[in-house]
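Show me any protein, keeping tokens residue-aligned.
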Amino acid sequence: MLTRYFSTPGTEYIVTLTAENMHDETDTAIMVWKVICGYPIVADDWTMTYPPFLENGNDFTVTFTINPNVPLPTRPILRIADIEGMQRTDHDIEVQNATDIVFYVATQSALNDPPDCLDGNSDDERCIIMLELENVGMNANVDSGAQGTISPDLGTSLKIIIPAFSDPGSHGFSVQFVNGISNIKDHYVLWTPNTEHIQLLDPGPQGSGEWVTISSLKWELNWVSRRT
């Protein structure tokens, strides 16, 4: 067994192994690996915010921020999945991992000229189901700095817009945030669940008629209600 340690975060290494047959010089095998020395996703470093209620005509924007002066996770990937069931204790709530929710990054150019991402429209390349932050946690961009900067192009926040939530009613969504060595829902060393408190309505007459607090995986269960 050969062991090679990499110690410079955000660096991409090319590792080449050449094996030769000492009895036949023409019998040679060359194996090449690409290895990235990276940081994991630390759940406590990240915050997600969004408005729980929307008025008609407003875009649904989700904002992600990171704490100042912490390591940036290497090339994290963001994906949004649909949720079946409403924000109620009497509903069977299930994350539909096979159902992607289309979104786009709220850059200034996209805000000035929003893409048409509804009805499965994929002609516009800005309409995406997965976002890989390729420059985050790489090269010189490995620390959030004093301002909590995610990357030079994003600044201190990543904002996405989900146009599918334009209809009245309650909409559920689950956020997946992962990289090659970790994810937002599990501790990157212990692999114990990262949890947060959310609220569900416990409707009467069988229930209390009040909002109750339960524990859920981080960013797993989220709802927004759009008023008519």
Remarks:
- The longest helix spans residues 108-112.
- The radius of gyration is 22 Å.
- The CA atoms of residues 199 and 212 lie 5 Å apart.
- Residues 43-226 form one domain.
